[in-house]
Amino acid sequence: NAGVTQTPKFRVLKTGQSMTLLCAQDMNHEYMYWYRQDPGMGLRLIHYSVGEGTTAKGEVPDGYNVSRLKKQNFLLGLESAAPSQTSVYFCASSYSIHSGGLYEQYFGPGTRLTVT
Amino acid sequence: GQQLNQSPQSMFIQEGEDVSMNCTSSSIFNTWLWYKQDPGEGPVLLIALYKAGELTSNGRLTAQFGITRKDSFLNISASIPSDVGIYFCAGQQARETSGSRLTFGEGTQLTVNP
Asked: Which of A89, B8, B27, B29 has its CA 20 to 30 A from that of B70?
């Protein structure tokens, strides 16, 4: 199993450009998450999904949109990138608590995004 | 969202020394998780704790879920150079109603000198 994969690994955008980050998992997890990691601030939740076709806002959702059209994929979109969105983005997935899984989230390798 | 208070922020130790780090919160947690992040990689789960008072080991790592459910600690014994990285605590709050959202600490940067 590849676990959680993310594409691309690196990206540089100019202010105002748009892009989509792709997360894929092959563990049949119901829940998926997008985090950003900034120096000294740990991991902050952007959006998450508890199942195919559903999404919800996390701690820092402004400026981002997400979609979960397939169970194994979770897309993070930036419609108009800003320098404040320069960060490392991590995707994670987990089983639902209802299927016996507890709260263990498994992370992808990250996408390093720079907005100039 | 609430951040966990993780300490220390950084540690510089000699190979072979033991290490201890902890997380505290003013809120009650149902679950505590400890992750390690290597440079340029995503966090990897080390230990998961599900019951107050629980003490769990994974090789040289030992973690405990505090009795009050508001804290947890991680110990690393006989450190080696590959222990270098950032260690994060994460918890699921008792009052959290939306799935398995976690609250993360800010991380402890560990440096091990050979």
From this structure: A89
**A50 φψ region: left (φ > 0), alpha (ψ -120 to 50), beta (else):** alpha
**Mind telling me how many Å the CA of B38 is from chain A's nearest CA?**
10
Distant-in-sequence, close-in-space partners of A113: CB < 8 Å, separation ≥ 6: A10, A11, A12, A13, A19, A21, A81, A85, A86, A87, A88, A89
pLDDT band at B98 (very low <50, low <70, confident <90, very high): low
Residue A49's nearest CA partner among A72, A26, A79, A19 is A72
Under 8 Å between Cβ of B55 and B66:
no
b/e code B46-75 from CB counts within 10 Å (16+ = b) = bbbbeebebebeeeebbbbbbeebbbbbbe
Q: pLDDT per residue over A18-43, tens digit each? A: 999 999 999 999 899 999 999 877 89
Question: Which of B6, B100, B102, B104 has the most A C-beta neighbours within 10 Å, making it the best mutation to test the interface with A?
Answer: B100
Distance CA B4, CA B25 (A): 6
Interface of A with B (CB under 8 A): 4, 31, 33, 40-45, 48, 50, 56, 58-59, 90, 92, 94, 96-97, 101-110
pLDDT, tens digit, for every residue of B2-51? 568 999 999 999 999 999 999 999 888 888 999 999 988 999 999 999 88
> CA torsion, points A26, A22, B34, B113, in degrees to nearest 10?
110
